[in-house]
Design goal:
Radius of gyration: 24 Å
Strand content: over 45%
CATH topology: Maltoporin, Chain A
Oligomer: single chain
Number of domains: 1
Structural class: mainly beta
Distance between the termini: 57 Å
CATH superfamily: TonB-dependent receptor, beta-barrel domain
Length: 615
C-alpha cells in the first residue's frame, strides 16, 4: 500500500521529471494549442479538440432538444458511434432484474450492472456506492448544456470505472442577463406525460439556474408503470475576473414496475422505489497561462425493492487539478483525487446480512502536451492510483496529433483502462474478496477533417482493444457460485461520424460503427448506423432520423438470440411567437418488432405532442 506522504512525494517527483524533460524540447508558438472547438473532458482544462490524442464526441444543447427525450442516455446512444444503451420501454430504465440502461462502448460494458463506462456530471463521477454503476434515470436532459464522450479508456484522468470510456454531462447555467424561463408540457402514447419547468437569473457576478421535471407513463405493457420527479439548482458567483465559484444540488425520486420477460410461465412482477441525490462545490481559476480548480462532491441514495432489498449508500470525494504553460507550446495538467464509496444493504434471505462496507481511492496524475513546428502535438500522461482493497495501479497514456493541413488532423494514441471490483462483487452476490482490477489496453488511429467554413466535418477512427482479468461468475459445482478474474477479450473495429450544414435551412449528420468481437456479447451490435436531417424555415423545424442496428445479441451461449431492426423517427415544431411553440413527434414509424433486453419487446409506433413556453 502507498500512504498519503508517499503519494505527495511521488506527485512532486513526477511533476519535476516532466517539467525538466519538457524544457529540453523544441519550443513552438502557444496558439497551436488553442484552435477550433474547445473540450474539457480529455484534459480537465480547456483544450482544442483537434489536439486531443483520444477520440472525443460532443453533443450540443440543440441536438438534445431535437431528440424530444427526457433522459440523456438515449440521445447519446443514437449520436455517439460505438456507443449503445439498452432500453426496455417508452421511458424509464429501472434497476435490478430486467433493468435497462446498460452502456456499451466499443463492445465493452453492457453487462448488468454496468460498471465499465463512467458517467460524470461536471467532471465528478456518478455511481451507486454498492454496485458502482450509473443511475440512468437520474440524468435528465433538461439540465444538460453539453455532453462530451471519451470513446475509449479515460482512466488516466478519472480512474476506475472509466475502463471503456467516460461520459461527462456538463450542466446548464444562466448566461444571459436578467431572467429567462422555459416550460414544456407533453402527452403521448401509453398515457405518457412529461412536465418540465426551468428558469434562470443573472445579475452582475451572480447567476442561478433551476429546474423541476416530472415524467410518468403506464408503459406499453401491463404492469410497466414508471414515474420520476427530478429537481436541480445551480448557483454561480464570480469572485473576480480570475476566480469563480459554483455549487449545485439535485434530487431524483423515481419508481418503476417490471412485468418480467414475456416468456415467463407466470408474471414476475417486480418494483423499485429509488431516491438519489447529489451535491457539489467547485472553485475554478483561469489566468492567461494558468487554469484549474477544486471540485468536492457527495452523492447519496436509498433503494427499496419489492423482493425485500433495502440499501443506503454514498459516494464522495474531492478532485484537485491545475493546468499551466511553463513555456511556449507547452501545457501541463497535474491533479489529485480522493474518492470513497460506501453502503449497507438491509436484506431478507437469500441476500447477505447487514454489513457496512466501504472502499476508498487516492490518486495523483500528470498530463502533458507539447506543440512542435506549429503542426505536431505530442501528449503523454501517467496516473498512480491506490485503492484500500487492491493496492496500487499505474495508468500510462501516450498520443500524437498531426495537423496535416489547416483542415485535417491525424491522431494516434495508446491508453490503459482499469476497473476496480465493486462492493457488490467483493461481498454481496457470488462474492470474492480476492478479486483484482480488470485491465484494458486501447490502440487507435484517427483522422479529422473540418472545412474552412466549418460547415462540414468528418471523423474516422480505427481501434483495437485487448482486455484481461475480466470478472466473470463461475457457477457451481462446487457451490456456491463465485466471481473470478478469468476472462480476456479482443475487440476491433472502426467508427465514422460527419455533419454538413448544406445551407441555412438544411443540415445533415450521421455516424456509423463496426465492431468485430472475438466472442458474442450482450448490448454490443456489430453494425450501428444513424442518419438525420433537419429543415428550418421561419418558425418551422422538422427533424427526420433513421437508426439501423444489426447483429445485436440479447442472449449469448448455446442458444444465442440476435436482433436487427431499423427505426424511423420524425419530429416537427412550429413557433407561433416568441413565447409559444407547438411540437409533435413520432417514433418507430415503421412499426418494427424488436427487443433490446431479452423478453422485453419494445413499443411499436408511438407519438408525443406538446407545448413549449419560453419567457
Amino acid at each position: 500500500m502507498i500512504n498519503t506522504n508517499s503519494m505527495k512525494k511521488l506527485l512532486i517527483t513526477l511533476i519535476t521529471v516532466f517539467i525538466t524533460g519538457l524544457t529540453l524540447m523544441a519550443q513552438a508558438p502557444r496558439d497551436t494549442l488553442l484552435i477550433d472547438e474547445v473540450v474539457i473532458s480529455a484534459s480537465r482544462i480547456e483544450i482544442s479538440r483537434r489536439n486531443v490524442p483520444v477520440t472525443v464526441s460532443s453533443i450540443t444543447r440543440e441536438q438534445i432538444e431535437l431528440s424530444n427525450e427526457s433522459a440523456i442516455l438515449p440521445v447519446l446512444s443514437q449520436r455517439i458511434p460505438g456507443m449503445f444503451v439498452t432500453e426496455r420501454g417508452v421511458t424509464g430504465f429501472g434497476l435490478a432484474q430486467g433493468s435497462a440502461g446498460q452502456i456499451s462502448m466499443r463492445g465493452v460494458g453492457g453487462t448488468a450492472p454496468n460498471t465499465q463506462v463512467l458517467v460524470l456530471i461536471d467532471g465528478h463521477p456518478q455511481i451507486q456506492g454498492l454496485f458502482s454503476h450509473p443511475l440512468p434515470d437520474a440524468y435528465v436532459s433538461t439540465d444538460v448544456e453539453k455532453v462530451e464522450v471519451i470513446r475509449g479508456p479515460a482512466s488516466l484522468l478519472y480512474g476506475s470505472n472509466a475502463f471503456a470510456g467516460a461520459i461527462n454531462i456538463i450542466t446548464r447555467q444562466q448566461t444571459q442577463k436578467g431572467f429567462a424561463g422555459n416550460a414544456r408540457v407533453s402527452y403521448g402514447s401509453f398515457n405518457t406525460q412529461k412536465y418540465i419547468a426551468s428558469g434562470g437569473f443573472r445579475e452582475g457576478r451572480f447567476n442561478v439556474f433551476a429546474s423541476i421535471n416530472h415524467d410518468r407513463t403506464n408503459g406499453h405493457r401491463d404492469n410497466s408503470d414508471f414515474q420520476i420527479v427530478n429537481g436541480f439548482i445551480k448557483v454561480g458567483y464570480e469572485l473576480n475576473k480570475n476566480f469563480n465559484l459554483t455549487a449545485d444540488f439535485s434530487i431524483a425520486d423515481f419508481s418503476s414496475e417490471d412485468p418480467g420477460p414475456v416468456f415467463a410461465a407466470e408474471p414476475m412482477l417486480f418494483g423499485i422505489d429509488v431516491m438519489r441525490g447529489r451535491a457539489s462545490l467547485a472553485v475554478k481559476n483561469q489566468f492567461e497561462n494558468f487554469e484549474g480548480g477544486m471540485i468536492g462532491f457527495y452523492n447519496f441514495g436509498k433503494h427499496e425493492f419489492t423482493d425485500g432489498w433495502i440499501s443506503d449508500d454514498y459516494h464522495a470525494g474531492i478532485s484537485l487539478f491545475q493546468g499551466f504553460s511553463p513555456f511556449a507550446g507547452n501545457r501541463v495538467t497535474i491533479g489529485a483525487d480522493y474518492k470513497k464509496v460506501a453502503g449497507i444493504a438491509n436484506n431478507v434471505p437469500p441476500f447477505a446480512a447487514d454489513i457496512w462496507h466501504e472502499v476508498d481511492d487516492m490518486a495523483a496524475y500528470v498530463f502533458m502536451q507539447q506543440s512542435l513546428l506549429n503542426r505536431l502535438v505530442l501528449s503523454t500522461g501517467f496516473r498512480l492510483e491506490n485503492n484500500s482493497m487492491f493496492g496500487s495501479e499505474t495508468v500510462p497514456q501516450v498520443g500524437i496529433s498531426f495537423m496535416a493541413t489547416e483542415n485535417s488532423t491525424f491522431k494516434a494514441s495508446t491508453s490503459k483502462g482499469f476497473r476496480s471490483p465493486s462492493i457488490m462483487e467483493l461481498y454481496l452476490f457470488a462474492p470474492n474478496p480476492d478479486l483484482k482490477p480488470e485491465i484494458l489496453w486501447n490502440y487507435e488511429l484517427g483522422f479529422n477533417y473540418q472545412s474552412t467554413s466549418k460547415r462540414f466535418s468528418a471523423d474516422l477512427t480505427v481501434f483495437l482493444i485487448e482486455g484481461d482479468n475480466m470478472i466473470q461468475v463461475v457457477p457451481p459445482p462446487p457451490p456456491p457460485a463465485m466471481r473470478q478474474n478469468m476472462g480476456s477479450f479482443t475487440n476491433r473495429g472502426f467508427e465514422a461520424e460527419m455533419s454538413w450544414i448544406a445551407n441555412p435551412n438544411f443540415s445533415f449528420s450521421g455516424n456509423y460503427s463496426y465492431i468485430d468481437l472475438d466472442q458474442p456479447r450482450i448490448a454490443a451490435p456489430k453494425h450501428q448506423l444513424y442518419l438525420e436531417s433537419t429543415y428550418r424555415n421561419g418558425g418551422f423545424r422538422v427533424n427526420l432520423s433513421a437508426r439501423h442496428i444489426s447483429e445485436l445479441y440479447t442472449v449469448v451461449g448455446s442458444q444465442p438470440v440476435l436482433e436487427s431492426f431499423t427505426m424511423i423517427n420524425l419530429m416537427g415544431s412550429y413557433r407561433i411567437n416568441e413565447t409559444l411553440e407547438v411540437f409533435a413527434s413520432g417514433k418507430n414509424l415503421l412499426n418494427q418488432t424488436y427487443q433490446i433486453n431479452n423478453g422485453y419487446p419494445m413499443p411499436g409506433i408511438n407519438f408525443m405532442t406538446g407545448l413549449n413556453i419560453q419567457i
